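Regression report. Comparing outputs from two consecutive submissions.

Submission 1:
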Amino acid sequence: MRVLVAPDKFAGTLTAVQAAEAIATGWRRRVPDAELDLAPMSDGGPGFVDVLHAGLGGDLLGVTVRGPLGDPVPASVLRVGEAAYVETAQACGRHLLGDGDVEAASTYGAGELLLAAVDAGATHIVVGLGGSGTNDGGTGLLAALGATGDAALDAGPAALSGLTTLDLGRARDRVAGVRITAASDVDNPLTGLFGATRTYGPQKGLAEDRLVAVDAALEHLAGLADRRLSLEKGAGAAGGLGYALLLLGADRVPGIGLVADAVGLPGRAARADVVVTGEGAFDFSSRSGKVPYGVAEIAAAALRPCVALAGQVLVGSREMRALGVESAYSLVELVGEERAWGDPAGALADLAERVARTWGR
């Protein structure tokens, strides 16, 4: 029995690497002789660098960068040959914002990560976007690279409405000759009804009565920089970090597809008898570029069944099959919410052991 284990993180409890190991532990209890291939996955958000390091190897370069509110935070750049991989959530993730004000939060540290990759000699930088606690249109990142204006670019969206001039020349020069790829699981534009602010701002703590003003600040930014690029898919990723990268000439790709190709997931799925994926909450939004849907598509192309293990399963059987998943199993239903949060690795192993009764034969 050959099993490909390709989960995402279980947000707030397990990294993707930890989740894959827990699933493997439980599966082996039921089927000791199973051949398990662990391929932890990411869509570009938190865990992006760890997942790629587990799959590709390479060297991790430790750096210290500015967090979203100015405090120093540890981060890392993964070098694999001439390529470098950076995870913007390490510099400006939602978990770093805490109870801080998103209107004052900056992506400056994400720009410092790009600089570290450039200084390390990378000729291709892949930037994982997702899980951000910022909504500054990527102006902090641009400031770290040398962009200037007549208002602060590294003080969050609150300062942008007073901006009347913007010079990106030094920022573009700093990455000249370097190919940049933005890996994102969302395709929202920068502004508007489906833009970064209105879609994701409330999740980051942006008050309802501030949505219009903050969106207008990003619209003002787009008018100074490049309005056409603000409408491109992915410009609204990570609070507008996608837009900043597009201004620097980046190409944008779905995060799950990039990671899957990097670790050779299609070929590994073809060699498996069953594919197991998972995430914290499996719901219909999983179709929006998230890991389980991407893994299920790859499994379907290889004519292999795909099952999902999740903290919670919030879809019925019809929706589940529309997502390409044969069956989905809930951690909370098996062990209860208290143990699912208190002992997530052990609980996930128990769930995997139970699922192996059906799918491990």
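Submission 2:
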Amino acid sequence: MNTEVTKSKIISSLFWKFMERGGVQGIQFVVSIVLARILSPEEFGKLTLIAIFITISGVLVQGGFNTALIQKKDADEVDLYSVFYLNLVLSSILYFALFFTAPFLGLLFEDPQLIILLRVLSLSLFFGAFNSIQNVIVQRNMEFKKLFFSSLGAIMISGPVGIVMAYTGFGIWALIGQHLTNQLVITIILWMVVNWRPKLLFSLNKVKRLFSFGWKILVSGLIDTLYNNLRGLMIGKLFSPAMLGFYNRGEQFPSVIIININGSIQSVMLPALALNQDDRPKVKSMMRRSIVTSSFIIFPMMVGLAVIAEPLVKILLTEKWLPAVPFLQIFCASYALWPIHTANLQAINALGRSDIFLKLEIIKKIVGVIILIITIPFGVYALALGVLAGGIISSFINAYPNLKLLNYSFLEQWKDIIPSLIHSLIMGACVYSIQFFGVPLLLTVMLQITVGIIVYIGLAIIYKNECFTYLQLTGKEFLKEKKRVSKIRLGRM
């Protein structure tokens, strides 16, 4: 495969990944806003609490082996069959573990309702096991168009289910019903569009080889998930489910943007980097492009969202959710660092250095736990600030190995993204000043968004931002390539 074809395929994959993450998650976000206006912060807090245990179990089911299958160049059908059956066994074991330990959760948080909620929501583990190999195949072949249609179909069905249940008085069960319906429909559609079916084949030797790489990713993912959800458990236990609902809702706004944009880029970059893992200069070039592009798009969004947080929450969620505003602003600053985190870690994984990946996770989590212990006595907002402090420190830790692996230092990375950061801060100052105009709330937000876009793009044009120029040229090349392919197809008809 030549370089031009590879570039075209990467751009095409990015387009469909953006469509899946941006379009589909955008609809999911709208659904969650409707549900938040109907349901209470306490009900969202309860869902967040039990979802922590499902998320941790999900990492155990899919965490390491799926990444190992994507990274392994010569993965064959027996590898896929073996991991599929292993995931089914693990999901069964974990489901029954959660089923029988649910009463302890209800006792710990003094809420008997959590028992039945956990037992029902845990059924989603089986859906994750059933569609795990389809997800691997899609990512290996960079066929993200299939993920888009499966996710779109799922939200178009599950969204109305959740909203109707909420309006008809089902309370928290509306959230449970919406989640399970979504996972079920995704699984059904992926089995329809991905031409893979399991056979009665299993190789313990194949599993062992994958485990030699995957266990480090699995442990890393488990440590990361436990750490990321530890604060949620602490807030739910030491404060209240309602406060956990505010914390979670404040995090959701910036996380939707990060998942859509940075997550899309990194989902495509892992298989692309893995294909070129033997060419270190090319891996560095691709990683640099990933960091620069992600930062150029994410920085202005995070700064802008932090500035308009209060009026936005009033308009979308109503005033009952205003305590979520400080969390939203703190998490905007924290998530702005994600392009550096994920690009560095994806490069390390693509090079097959899961040993380094695991060491980094252990170091970061030790630092994070220390910060957590220090911030607990100062309240829930201090816990959120601790996440930001840990993110800043982690950006140094994640970048350090790539100085040796790719000759790409932390200082060089920041030199690449500093223009976008400066332009974003200038834009943020302009947007913030609009609130003093004394116009109605909705008009204020609309003006802020419009001015923010104009100022940021204007600065990129005036100062000839390298990433902005690259995106323009890449877009033109992509459209030109699409036209050329269309002409060839028409000529064959």
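Expected: both submissions complete independently.
Actual: both completed, but the second showed a warning that disappeared on reload.
Relevant detail on submission 2: DSSP finds 21 helices and no strands in the chain.
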